[in-house]
Amino acid sequence: MAETVSESQSNGGGVTVKCIPAFKDSRTSKCQVHMRCHFEYSPNEDKDFPKGETGLSFQPCDILEIIDQTDSDWWQAKHIDESKTGIIPSLKLEQTRKAANLIPKNKQNKILGKFQKKGKKKIVYQTCKNSIFDCFDVRLYEEVAKMPAIENKVIAFVGTQGLGKKSVITRLLSNYADRYVSVVPDTSREPREDEEQKKGYNFMNKEEMHKDILAGKYYEWGEDKGNYYGSKLSSIRDIINSGKIALVDCEASALKFLRTAEFMPFIVFFNAPDMQTLQKYNQQSNSKVSTREELDRIIEESADISETYHHYFDKTIEGGNAEQSYNTLREVIEARSNMTHQWVPISWVY
């Protein structure tokens, strides 16, 4: 290079250097970008929609192919496997509009850890501190990639108590013991007389558990009467390494730690039905939930969870009727086993 420059200068000429990238990203070669939508949109109801343009409606979970992102406010897109194109609000525009209407609720006492609701325990759950900030984490579009179908390593279950979630998990473990294993939580308290290690809890040294909490090894944890309770990421890894699928019953605020390329979870949300249906289910079962106030609490908490974390959910199941919920989930799992491909977050691929 130096010899070429020297020779050119001696002849009174100049040198033009062209730089090209050493690596070409295959994703950009065809300019294809696919997005999963996390909100409902209709151009007919959008007062800001530009006149004379053709819009494109979509529902949550729809997959769109983004054709042109040149305009900062409006993208050209189409539904996959369809030819009709139209414009949709860009991420920048929709974020601006959503932020203007984002008035956070006081959810600190609504979206709490499951240990806090057990019996008379009162536990300040660590992950619930994040739920306040999660209210500001507004997901509108998520870039996704198409890949061959795989069996998920983890099935995560979220939803407020009183909707039969635990009954469904217990039944899955009973009927498919050779396939599924549930995560056993840790505790620093002393075992009771009738308790065994890894039968309900892993009994841990408090100092060691405290150290692991500070090191971020727990995806959720809490404290009650000076004792720690929590669930470890390594417990999920141990199940996966054994060749089985981990069933994880967790708080929605823990999903940010689980929805990764390492775990590739299938996330199921147990949603509360309307009050009339919930009362009917409650009367037909032997549920401990009996008062109108408790049923109101279930519906309100369920709505809060859905509003804040819906972008994580792969399947929403109506809770309250354990038999119906179990059958629905089993059908979903069987249908997924016959899939040829799936859309996953782009971070799981690149």
UniProtKB/TrEMBL annotation:
Residues 152-334 form the Guanylate kinase-like domain. InterPro entries: GK/Ca_channel_bsu, Guanylate_kin-like_dom, MAGUK, P-loop_NTPase, SH3-like_dom_sf, SH3_domain. PROSITE patterns: GUANYLATE_KINASE_2 (PS50052), SH3 (PS50002). Residues 30-98 form the SH3 domain. Keywords: SH3 domain. Gene3D superfamilies: P-loop containing nucleotide triphosphate hydrolases, SH3 Domains. Transmembrane segments: none annotated. Belongs to the MAGUK family. This is Uncharacterized protein. The lineage of its organism: Eukaryota, Metazoa, Cnidaria, Hydrozoa, Hydroidolina.
